[in-house]
């Protein structure tokens, strides 16, 4: 009899512990990460764009924290996403060039969340290869022209007894353009044309179509928020809105100027009561921050980023003095490296003898074609002629306090030689510590300036960092000034 009573008592204790554990798990915050495709940091209403209509994203900005200086590690779709999911620089992921699949040996923060009890789902653009399957309970290619149409149903059909992480990745606003009733029609004649583009009718139509796709994504952002409210879980959910690289126009996407390498980055969630932060952050910092939000301690040294959870809580203002970024092969051969420090941006070009091109700066798309035609007729100005420079300067230095678009290279100004020498040292330190290397046999151009495939066999060659086995190196390079030797 005593044994039976003891068994029933122990069963009751176990049931209580199990119930408590389930409630404790359920109280862990949910996370929804919305990644836009090819949307520049300044092309959102709350970042100052008065032409595009993004009321739902703007509402997130009003309710949460708007990051003014979130830097991506590269302005190229697949390597940027692989960098975000691993918390590693592109040359350290083993997937630094466009279309490189992420090696399965690399760490992925959703995989850690999944092992810790989170339900994890990816919907929309993957572009990281098959290795990410182990990081997600469910993967969908998405529905609709922007791949956002199943986001709400995924939220509705998730397991109810688990916290969740959603990687919602739209195809908006990636070319080619697709139109539907979910996006807003923008009048080309009323738009302000960015100064690096030629102000012509085809470029204006191109911009209007781009803004249409941004507004469609905004519609589905609103639907996600609406569903979270309907389920009564918005207050326990972090929502992040960001982009993978700059806009698909000349001198933006692929490039290391702010128009290419900065991301809009907005967060709302429990405990976030700061409206804006202008300190420097890197996309590699997202992975450790997501784990901190979930209360998951990890000592995995493969994550090179630094958590900014303290910034979200108001305990810290900044976490780093430097951000670094890289430009590798993306249709055209490329090797550039960048460091930002305070208001200074230093860029080093490994192939100064070449034009700095991307598919979006060729004649393949309307804005690029119109720019080339205007240049050939002598109708462009210096701000619009960057993509035609050949040779280029091997070093570029910009002071963002008075040069928002980085149009004026001040590397040769005598009074700037001290800061130039300092940033050379900082970048050298990062290159050495992270095992970066300029390819001796780099991947060649795949297309020509017409946007057509070059004749003959084409294949990828040596990758940045490959010579140093950088994909096995975990050092992050300097984050704070005290890290410099």
Automatic annotation (TrEMBL):
Keywords: Calcium, Hydrolase, Metal-binding, Signal
Biased composition (Basic and acidic residues): 444-453, 463-472
Keyword Electron transport: no
CDD domains the record matches: SGSH
InterPro entries, per database record: Alkaline_phosphatase_core_sf (IPR017850), Sulfatase (IPR050738), Sulfatase_CS (IPR024607), Sulfatase_N (IPR000917)
Position of the signal peptide: 1-21
Gene3D superfamilies the UniProt entry points to: Alkaline Phosphatase, subunit A
Sulfatase N-terminal domain location: 29-134, 151-296
Alphabetized PROSITE patterns for the sequence: SULFATASE_1
Stretches the record annotates as Disordered: 434-485
Similarity annotation: Belongs to the sulfatase family.
Name of the protein this chain belongs to: Sulfatase
The organism of origin for this protein: Olivibacter oleidegradans
